[in-house]
Design a protein that fits this description.
165 residues, alpha/beta, three-stranded parallel β-sheet, two-stranded antiparallel ribbon, 7 strands
Length: 165
């Protein structure tokens, strides 16, 4: 994380006894020379939480414990917004999202990409997320090996013919 890498696994574990707000503040402080106090932290995090439709009480919940799929994704995105990594790896970020939430995810990726230079690695089985993003390269893996690679044309081929071409 300190070197600018953010990894969002498909199914991160729930961690009882660790408040989400404490986790976020610790993560942010790990990137700072001077630790951020509680008041400064909440002044920073509350507007972002509001933008993501997360209630202020969300920070008092145990880390990912009982979070819905949408809450997990918004919590994940909050971390990206706060930490501003150089590289983001998203494993199945569209898993469990409806079409509107998937569009919102794509919009957030585009917005953040325009605000700062970020490298993205997005692992997905749904080409619809990729269709709206400025994709440079697409890699198809099968049985642990790269079966195909290319540009945006690979996404179009998957949409038309599926993964087996």
């Amino acid at each position: 994380s300190k070197r600018g890498l953010f990894l969002a696994p498909q199914s991160p574990p729930e961690i009882a006894g660790v408040r989400f707000g404490s986790f976020l503040r610790s993560a942010m402080n790990a990137h700072r020379e001077t630790p951020m106090g509680v008041e400064e932290f909440y002044a920073t995090v509350r507007p972002l939480m509001s933008d993501l439709d997360l209630e202020p009480s969300f920070t008092q919940r145990n880390l990912l414990e009982g979070f819905s799929g949408g809450e997990r994704k918004r919590a994940e995105w909050l971390q990206v917004e706060l930490l501003r990594p150089s590289y983001v790896m998203l494993d199945e970020p569209d898993s469990g999202l409806d079409i509107d939430a998937t569009k919102h995810l794509a919009q957030n990726i585009l917005r953040l990409s325009q605000e700062q230079k970020i490298g993205w690695l997005i692992i997905t089985h749904q080409p619809s997320l990729l269709e709206t993003l400025p994709i440079d390269r697409v890699f198809i893996f099968e049985d642990g090996r790269m079966a195909r690679s290319g540009g945006r044309n690979v996404i179009l081929d998957i949409r038309q013919f599926g993964f087996k071409t």
